[in-house]
Amino acid sequence: MRFFKGMKGKDAAASQCTSNDFQDLFKKFEASKDFLTFQFPDEDGYTISYFNSLVNAQQVHEQVLAVLSTHQKKPLQQLKGDITMEDIKETKDIKVIQRLILSGSIMIQYKTGDETCLLIPCALDVKRKTSIPESEYTVAGPKEAFVESLDTNLNLIRNRLPIPDLQAKEFRVGSISQTRLVVLYIDGIVNQQIVDTVTQRIGDIEYDTIVDISFVGQMITDNRNSMFPQLIDTERPDHLASVLSEGKIGIMLDGSPHALVGPNTIISFFSSFEDYFQIWNLGTSFRLIRLFAVLFSIFSSPLYVAVITYHYQVIPTNLLPLLISSRGVIPFPPILEAIVLEGTIELLREAAVRLPAKVGSTIGIVGGIVIGTAAVEAGFVSNVLLMLVALAALASFTMPIYQISNTIRLIRFPFLLAAQLYGLFGLALCSAFILCHLLKLKSLGSPYMEPLYPMRFDDFKDSLIRLPFSKQIKRPRFLRTENPIRIKKKAETQNTQSDIDE
Amino acid sequence: MEVKPNETKQISAFFVFFLMPGMQIGVGILGFEQVIAKEAGHDAWISVIISGLIINAFIWMCYKLLGRGPNTFDLVAIHQDLFGKWIGNTFNILFILYFIIISITIIRTYIEVIQVWMFPGINVLMLLTIILVLVYSFVTGGFRVLTGFSLIGLVIVAPLFLLIFFPLKHAHFGNLGPVLDHSFLEIMVACKKMTLNYVGFELLLIYYPFIKKRELSQKWAQFGVLFTMSIYLVSMIVSTAYYHQEQLKGLIWATLTFWKVVDLPFVERFEYVGITLWLFKVLPNICLGVWAASRTMKRVFGVKQKKMVVFILSVILVSGLLLDTHNEIYWFNTLVSRIGFFIIFLYIPFIFIWQSIVYKVRSHKP
Fold it and tell me: What pLDDT does residue A4 have?
C-alpha cells in the first residue's frame, strides 16, 4: 500500500512541471538521429514519436499504424481501446514518458505540442537464445544456461518452480543504467532476515552503470576485500532452482547471463552441481578428490620450496638421489625457480583465456610442451618442480566455480614467500593467517566455515560428503530456514528380504 | 556492571568440550613426562589420572562459583561481589598478570622448541612479531573465532596423536610393573606437578558469559578435561613403556622424541612436520590467554578491548625478547608453575569456601 501511496505522490509532483520541461525533453530526444517524430496518417493526424532503434518495426506497422490509418481521428482516450496491445499508458508525467520512450515505447499525441500522450510498449528485444552452459558444463543433466534477458531467465526459473511462493522482488540499480535487478526467493522457506539483509544492501548500492551481476556481487558481499568469494556466480537455471528450494536466495540482473546465489559456505564452492547427478557414493568420492586437489594445488610448490631450502633431512633416502640429479645443475635457489615456473603458468593461463578458443588451445600446447621442455633442458628449472607445478595447475582446474579457482591460483604466491621465509613453519603460519580470515568471514551473515565451525553434524550430509537423497530430510541448518523439513513422508520401505533372511 | 555479550557472539555449550583441551594441551605435553617420571617413576600414569580427576572436581567448583550469585557470571563479578570494588579489582589485576605470564611462557617455550629443533639461528624478534600479529588478528575476531580456532586446531593436530602407534611397536609394557611401587607421597608430588599441565581450565571463569545454555555446559567441560587426561595418559603410558626409566628422566622433550621414531615412506625426520603442525595447538593457547587477559582488563577498567590487546601483545613481545637463554626460560617456566599451582590448588578452593561463607552470612541477614 505504501508503495502505491508513494507513486501517487510522485504523480502529483510531476503534473506540476511546466510544458517547458516537455519541450526540453523533446529537444534532447531530437538531437539524436534515431529519434523519429512525424504526423500520421496525414498532416492533421496524430503526432507519433519514437526511437527507431528501440522499437520493433513490424509491431509498429501491424498493430499501431495499421489501426490508426483505418480509423477516424478521435481523442486519445478512445483510441486506447482500438489498439490491441497490453499495458498502454495515457499520461503527462514527464518522468514516465522519458522512461517508457527510452525503453522502447512509441508516443502518440493528439496534436504536436500536447502534453498528454499515449504510450504504447513496442520494445525490440534483441535476445540470444538459451545456450549450453560453458563455465559450468556437466556431462549429465540439463544443458540450458541463463541468457542476457532477465525475463527469459525468470521464465527458466518459474518453469522449474511452478509455485506462487516463488517471489521476485524488483529493484533498479545504477544511477545512469537503471538496470533491473531481481531478488528471487521462496517465501515460507527462506529466512526473512537474509532477504532483508540483501534488500538493504542492494538499496545501498551507489554507482552509475551496473552492467554485470559481478558488480552487484562485489558491492553486496560481507567482506569486500576478501579474496574468497562469498556469493556463488552460476549460469545454470537448474542449479539456481535447486538452491532456491533449499532456502537460499538468488539475485539476477538484466543483461547478465549469471545469477548470484547466497548464503554459501566454503564447501559449496568445491561442490559441482554434477555431484547430484551421480549416485551418492560416486558424488562423494569426486567431491573428496576435488578437496584433495585444492590442498595439493595450494601446497605442492610451496612444500617443494620449503623442503629443498630448509628441511632436506625430511626427504627419504631413496628419493634423495632423484632430487639431487634433477636439481644439481639449476643455478637458482628453489624460490626463484618456483616463482618463475608459477609465473609462466599464470602467463599461459591469462593468454589462453584472452585468445579465441582455437588459438587458445595452441597456446596451451606451445606453453606446456615447448616452454616446459625447453626450460628443463636449459637448466632453468628442475623437472620435479615442473611436474609439481603442472599437476598443481591441473588440480586447480578441477574447481567447479570459476571465482574460487582464481583465488586458488593467487593464494599460492603468499605461501611460496612464507615457505622461503621459514620453511615448513612458514607454511603453517601462512595457513593460520588464512584460517583466521576464513573463520571471520561470513556470507550474508552466515558463518563461512560451517559445518566445520560452528560444528553441525546434520549439515555434513551435503558438504564434504554427499549422502543419498533419502538422507536429505532437512534443509541445511546454516540457512536458518522457516521450514526446515524437505521430505515430509518417510519413504515406505519395501519388503526386499532376500530368501536367506526369511 | 554486568557486560553481557550479544547472543550472536555466544557459543553453544558443546564447544566448551573443545575449549578445555584447546587451552590445556599446549607446549607442556611435548615434554611433561620427564617431570613427573622423576617423582613417580613408572607409576607416573597413576598421577596423571588422579590429577585429572582433581581437575574435574575443580571444574565442579568453578561452576558452583559461577552459578551461585545473582549476577556473578564471571570472575570479575565474583571478585567484586565478594570483596568489594577495590580489593576485588586487586585480585582481578593479579589474574590479568597471571594470564599474561601464561601467554608469555607458552609462546617463549614454543619458540625455544623451534630454536632447538628447527632453526637454531632464527631471529627471535622477527618470529615473535609475526606470531603476535597472527595472535592479534585472531583475538580481534572475537571469542567465537577463538573457539573455532581451538576446534580446528584440535582437528588439524589429531593425526599427530595417532602417531603414538609407531613407538608402540617397540614398547615393553613390562616397564609399567610393578604397579604402585611408589609411596603415596611420591605419587601425590607427581600429581602436583602434573596438575600444571591441566592449567587453562580456569579460563572458564572468564568466558562463562559467552556460553549459551551455560548450565548444560558443565557436562562438556568435564568431558573436555577427561579428553585432555586421556591424551596425557596415553603419552605417559607409551613413554614409560618405550623408554627406559633412566633415559626418560633425562629427556626434556619425550613426546617430541616420539616423532623421531615415526617411519613413513614419504617423509623422514617427522619431528619437523610435527613441530610445524603443533603451531595449531599452541596458537589457540596463546590467543585464549591474551583474550582472557584483555577481556578482564575491559571488565575492570572499562576500556576498549582492542587497545588492551595491543598493550598486552607489546608486553609479551618485550618480555619474550628479555627471556633469552634456556636457563632463563626454564626459570620463568618454574615461576609460572608455582603461580599456577597457587591459583589452582589454593586460590580456587579458597574463593569457593569464602563465597559459601559470605552467602551463608548474607542469607541469615534479613
Answer: 42
Indicate the helix (H) or strand (E) that contains A49.
strand A46-51
Residue B69 gets which letter from DSSP? S
Choose between A209 and B252: higher pLDDT. Answer: A209
Q: Where are the domains of chain A?
A: 15-121, 150-264, 286-447
A454 at B interface, C-beta within 8 A? yes
Residue B106: predicted pLDDT:
92
Among B151, B266, B279, whose Cβ lies nearest the Cβ of A429?
B279
Q: Which residues of A touch B275 (CB under 8 A)?
A: 425
The residue of chain B nearest to residue A450, with distances taken between CA atoms, is B148
Question: DSSP string of A107-125?
Answer: EEESSTT-S-EEEEE-B--
The cell numbers describing B38, all together, are 622423576
Confidence of residue A63 (pLDDT cuts 50, 70, 90): confident
**What does the pLDDT average to over B120-147?**
94
Q: What is the mean pLDDT of chain A?
A: 86
Partners of A90 in the β-ladder: A118
> A4: which 3 cell numbers?
502505491
User: What pLDDT does residue B53 have?
Assistant: 93
Residue of B nearest to A451 (CA): B148
φ/ψ region of A445 (left if φ > 0, alpha if ψ in -120 to 50, else beta) reads: left
Q: What is the pLDDT of residues B304-352, one digit of tens each?
A: 999 999 999 999 999 999 988 889 998 998 898 888 888 888 899 999 9
**Could you tell me the CATH superfamily of domain B8-349?**
Amino acid/polyamine transporter I (1.20.1740.10)
Contacts for A241 with CB less than 8 Å, ≥ 6 apart: A157, A160, A161
* Residues of chain A positioned with their CB less than 8 A from the CB of B266: 316, 319
Query: Using CB atoms, which residue from A436, A449, A453 is nearest to B137?
Result: A436
The answer to whether A440 contacts chain B (CB < 8 Å) is yes
d(CA B152, CA A328): 40
CB-based contact, A277 to chain B, within 8 Å:
no
Alpha carbons B49 and B45: distance in angstroms, whole number:
7
Give me the helices (H) in A370-500, please. 372-377, 383-397, 402-440
> Å from A438 to nearest chain B CA?
9
Contact assignment for A311 to B145 by CB distance below 8 Å: no
Query: Three-state SS across B139-166?
Result: HCCCHHHHHHHHHHHHHHHHHHHHCCHH
- Give domain limits for chain B: 8-349
Interface test with A, best of B122, B123, B128, B130 (most A CBs within 10 A): B130
DSSP string, A181-225: EEEEEETTTS-HHHHHHHHHHHHT---S---SHHHHHHHHSS-TT
